[in-house]
Design brief:
Strand content: 25-35%
Radius of gyration: 18 Å
Largest sheet: 6 strands, mixed
Shape: globular
Structural class: alpha+beta
Number of strands: 16
Number of helices: 3
């Protein structure tokens, strides 16, 4: 079975989709069956019987032209998104944000005078929002990005700050309803990562209720760089993986 940690694998695009390293899972991946929920998100469909009744296995996949990311968890939904750091936005960023983001997101981006920093912060917010709606199992069409705001809160002082600020303490990522700024969705946790200095990756999972779902409970995350049949190495805690947001235990 999988450990209680969240497993995340990154592989070059075009690699064979063999995403079951280091899980000590006794099941042959070829025997897995899949289904889609009502919004089209793929799910594992376990074939339970009297001799084998595994806990629910959740996964999510994202890709760019140069990287594939796959996140796997047990007992809790997961959403993952990966974006190239050098991705260029064809439209004006503020105009684009006004169309798709919440008023608070637009205000945050408008306050950034440096165009390059503004572009980077836009991509980070997009990546976090994408991971959240995928964790919900809905996707963009069923959960428009305008309906919620992603905010960063320094856990040591309890106040909010932009994800591009210089706050050194770990930052909890908060989901806030655009209709009610006092309504913080506290049952989800996030990780925002800089992967190999070339991609931003966001991971969103439901909090583990077995530990009380406390705000500052770290996300237990193990990250692997995988090139099937060539390389399979854990990059958690190395220079290849930089945590930009979220409370993480690697």
């Amino acid at each position: 079975m999988l450990s209680e940690k969240f497993l995340c694998c990154f592989a070059p695009s075009g690699s064979p989709a063999t995403f079951f390293p280091k899980t000590n899972c006794q099941m042959n991946p070829k025997s897995l069956k899949f289904r889609k929920n009502i919004y089209g998100k793929p799910e594992v469909e376990w074939q339970n019987d009297d001799k084998f009744s595994p806990p629910p296995l959740h996964f999510n996949i994202s890709h760019t032209s140069s990287m594939i990311a796959c996140g796997v968890t047990v007992n809790m939904p997961i959403g993952i998104d990966v974006e190239e750091k050098q991705r260029r936005i064809k439209n004006n960023i503020i105009s684009f944000a006004r169309r798709y983001f919440s008023p608070h997101d637009v205000k945050l981006l408008t306050a950034i005078s440096d165009p390059e920093v503004q572009r980077e912060e836009f991509i980070k917010l997009w990546t976090l929002k994408e991971a959240y709606v995928k964790a919900l199992g809905k996707g963009f069409s069923a959960m428009p990005f305008k309906t919620f705001t992603i905010r960063f809160r320094a856990t040591a002082v309890g106040d909010f700050h932009p994800c591009g600020s210089s706050v050194s303490e770990p930052s909890e990522v908060i989901v806030e309803s655009s209709d009610d700024s006092t309504n913080l969705t506290s049952n989800w946790q996030f990780a925002l990562l800089d992967v190999a200095d070339s991609h931003y990756a966001a991971i969103c999972t439901e909090k583990d209720t077995s530990v009380g779902g406390e705000a500052n409970t770290p996300m237990k995350l193990t990250v692997w760089k995988t090139i099937p049949f060539v390389e399979d190495v854990c990059v958690s805690g190395t220079a290849a993986l930089r945590v930009l947001g979220g409370i993480i235990e690697q």
